[in-house]
Amino acid sequence: MAMYRTAIVGGRRGVHHARCYTGIENMKVIAICEIDEERLKEAVEELNVPGYTDYVEMLEKEKPDIVHAVTEPTVPRHIWVEPAAEAGVKALVIEKPLALRPSEAEALAAAHEKTGLKIIVNHQRRYLPFAEKLLEFFADDSLGDIHFIRACTEGDITDMDTHLMDVVLFALKDIPFTHVWGAVEGAEIYDVPHRQCPEDLMAIYTFENGARVFFESARTAFGTIDFPGSNPRCNLDFWGTKGRMWWRENGSWGYQFDGMAQHFVEKTHFGEDDKFGQRAFTEAIAAWLDDENQPHRNRLEYAMLGFDLIMAAYRSALIGERIAWPPKLSDEEWVELKNRVTGT
């Protein structure tokens, strides 16, 4: 079993991700990079590893196998790729969202194609316990084919709706969509107004297999009000041809299939589920490096599809029409929509 050495970029949220390496036999954190000196000092003290303020210097001196970059959305993700590949890094993990505007996603895709580096996006919900059960239901066909999904979340579009969209794609086995009708309202002006995204997004998607998705991401989402006690960050209902399954991030998850007299239900606690999910996500990086036949569930190609889905809803909202694949949104259109919602 190979030992994989990981360097962390980002001394705030990055430390949380570094903790998930503790106790994994064939993976360890060996360095951290952070430009804020105070955060760097705290991270070095907690992790007991060398600290750097320069990314390239860290790569040259430490020669990690894995880089885990956990930075703000305003830092373009593509800047980590080529230096990592040149330094012999085998896998790069980037934080969501993978981009804020189309040109950033295009630059990331180009860097990925140029280097061939394995890139993973930190949408760890594909490794939560409910996701494992969903895979079991796919394997034994107990849920049948999913034909409708109701998905809603509260929070920043650049934050929680990327997670929500990723779970939608996971449940639909990452197939492309055919049409979308989207609407946006307001401008995100809370803690990080520089993200410059709409405050509310609502869309109806149709996928290649005929499935439809009602998708809502908003500061106060309508679809979350009727789930008492649930954390509104991620709420999903999956209707299949043989039954129904649901998941609330802090509430409950459960299912009822044909022939079941009563539904199965269990409480959920994201704080506990995430410990399991983030660790499984981390272990899966090494598994992919060990064996090409065990690809990571959060490969860049899936996150790119999710990004395209969100950008497609933006474009539909901009032109006021239902649009079909491919949903190409230009940077100029992105700026036009941003200016419209911000009133500039």
From TrEMBL:
GO terms for molecular function: nucleotide binding; oxidoreductase activity. Coiled coil: none annotated. SUPFAM superfamilies: Glyceraldehyde-3-phosphate dehydrogenase-like, C-terminal domain, NAD(P)-binding Rossmann-fold domains. Keywords: Oxidoreductase. Residues 5-123 form the Gfo/Idh/MocA-like oxidoreductase N-terminal domain. The keyword Oxidoreductase applies. Pfam families: GFO_IDH_MocA (PF01408). This is UDP-N-acetylglucosamine 3-dehydrogenase. It comes from Geodia barretti (Barrett's horny sponge).
